[in-house]
Description:
alpha/beta; N-(1-d-carboxylethyl)-l-norvaline Dehydrogenase, domain 2; 2 domains; NAD binding; NAD(P)-bd_dom_sf
Amino acid sequence: xxxxxxxxxxxxxxxxANLLATDIDVSIFDNNVKMYVHExxxxxxxxxxxxxxxxxxxxINPKYLPDVKLSENVVAxxxxxxxxxxxxxxxxxxxxxxxxxxxxxxxxxxxEELIVINLAKGLVFEEKLSTPSEFVSHxxxxxxxxxxxxxxxxxxANKVVAxxxxxxxxxxxxxIFKSLFVKPYFQVKFVKYNPTIDVYGALKNVxxxxxxxxxxxxxxxxxxxEHDKIVFGSNxxxxxxxxxxxxxxxxxxxxxxxxxxxxxxxxxxxxxLIVSCExxxxxxxxxxxxEAVKSCQSEKGMLSDILEEKFNGQKIQGMDTVKILYEYLKxxxxxxxxxxxxMVYELLFETCDLSPVYEFI
Length: 361
């Protein structure tokens, strides 16, 4: 009997834990899916309560997925030791916290048999640039698969039909993942592992952030603005989308990642980019940044605080990804070859106004 654990309890981690625990195949897996929760206290129904207790007793995650009733088989744990019997580890923490995987791995008893799959989106730049699955693999000296796709968490939590892509390493892993993840409303395509899958998941966040900034400008046009003689519209949004796709493909090719054009047509590529620009968190954040700039609420270091407050403390992957990308490109004196990345970086971390956007367009 294999034990399954999800590392992370944000909206995506909670959604995945619930998906796995619902109608789990008890001939293969233990019926409980453990979900590691970074313990916090919050006001809920007039009382101060621990998040883990609310999840386990009331089967709801009011902080990150408040409108979805969770399976009773989702069990919140707050200590890494509670994950010691894990056979399948699903990594679903923001890429900034991937180091915690090593701490979990150290307490796991059956290290040789452990299967690990990454669901985080982002990049890590420590001496060299790594995707989340590459970074986890390096941390624990073990292969790490990846799941990426056009997956809006709250829609999947409500069983809205979606598809995803899993990059796996061997046929045994593939069978395990198929038994766990495939649901009538969650279609899964399997391909051999390729880090390019993760690269698409990271870079689309930057493009959708830029897309949201443009939408924010469009919605605020007509108010007092020194740039009002320059009018943005649907054509302008498509400029951002086209240039964003161009920069993604350019980055993949120049960094030596393989299979970029083939994977572009999969759900981890163009599909994820489209849905992120339509409904993703980073698109929403781009719009909020525009609002903050317009209302003069933005100062260096404040924008990330404003956004995290809006999203209940959840990390905004696009902000960190663009910072990592820019610093990496600057270390190679290539920042001027990727003007969208440069534009978003300058707006967020240097000027805190919209001048880089108008210069970019």
